[in-house]
Amino acid sequence: MEENIIYEPPKHRGLYLDPRTKVLVMLVLATLIFFVHKNLILNSILVFIPIFLLISDKRYRPAFIYGGLFVIAFFVKIYGGRFEFPYLISMILGLIVELIFRFFPVFMFGYYIIKSTKPNEFISAMNLWHVPEAFIIPVSVVFRFVPTLAEENKSISNAMRMREIRFGTKKFLKNPSMILEYRLVPLMMSVAKIGEELSAAALSRGLGGLKKRTCMVELRFGIWDVCMAILIFTLVIWTIIGRI
User: Fold this and answer.
1) Residue 95 has pLDDT above 70, yes or no
2) Distance between CA atoms of 44 and 239, rounded to whole angstroms?
3) Residues 106-119: pLDDT tens digits?
4) Residue 133 contacts residue 209 (beta carbons within 8 Å)
5) pLDDT, tens digit, 9 for 90 and up, residues 5-47
6) How far does Cα 191 stand from its chain's mean position?
7) Which of 37, 130, 140, 230 sits 20 to 30 Å CA-CA off 84?
8) Quick one: 39 exposed, middle or buried, by C-beta within 10 A (0-12, 13-18, 19+)?
9) Alpha helices for 129-176 (secondary structure H)
């Protein structure tokens, strides 16, 4: 008698979080980040959460780029007041620092969710929450759309590089608008084509059907989910105590 195949997370991942944990942590992170701007230590902890998760998922390049931007913003925030800058430059620096401290953590956590979560895992998690399919289908398509669009953009860049259509070349100096034409037109065509193909693929997999879909993914909370829940709960209590 054949046994049912049960989905398990890939073994090569150093730190695996349930998709439900990721979504909840992102919502809490997006909420807390606007209440802790005066507490530099707590703000730094919230910033380092997506950095740590990106490194654990072996996304070293975005983790170090974001970490480097945060370190620069950290020193600007601490020591920037000791120097006198023109008013416009001070405003621009302040805006960039606040963007890195307040918005970048949420953006990077969203990037981590898209890169580390498979569409079938996300769909299974949303079904467990009884989320309407009107929300599940578009988001599941986005999970496949973003990586596919990135590959298309990379292919377009390689083709332009082979034809020496890039900044600083003779072709660019003769016709600067050429770089926009050769970049945007193929990209827009790819966007339309990818959207149609992914929508058809989603429907062929049974999304949007009248009957309840079965799923091979069996999600369960693990030790890392418990650790993340404890960390987030501690940060929430810390934030509440700090504002009393």
Assistant:
1) yes
2) 13
3) 999 999 998 888 88
4) no
5) 555 555 545 688 999 999 999 999 999 988 887 788 888 899 8
6) 19
7) 37
8) middle
9) 133-162, 170-174
SS3 225: helix
Alpha carbon distance 134, 199 (integer Å)? 13
Cα distances from 107 to residues 66, 103, 189, 194, 211, in angstroms, run 10, 6, 26, 23, 35
Q: What percent of the chain clears pLDDT 70, i.e. is strictly above it? A: 86
Distance, in Å, from the CA atom of 238 to the CA atom of 243, rounded to the nearest integer, reads: 9
d(CA 235, CA 227): 12
Q: In this structure, which long-range contacts are made by residues 228-235, counting pairs with CB atoms below 8 Å and at least 24 apart in sequence?
A: 228/17, 228/21, 228/25, 229/21, 231/49, 232/24, 232/25, 232/28, 232/29, 235/28, 235/32, 235/42, 235/45, 235/46
Average pLDDT value for residue range 145-169: 80
Q: Give mean pLDDT, residues 201-218.
A: 69
User: Does residue 7 sit in helix, strand or coil?
Assistant: strand
Residue 174 has pLDDT above 80, yes or no: no
Reported residue count of the chain is: 244
Are 235 and 48 a contacting pair, CB within 8 Å? no
What local confidence, expressed as pLDDT, does residue 13 receive?
Answer: 55
CA 112, CA 228: separation in Å to the nearest integer? Answer: 15
CB 63 within 8 A of CB 118: no
pLDDT tens digits, residue range 36-75? 877 888 888 998 999 999 999 889 999 999 999 999 988 8
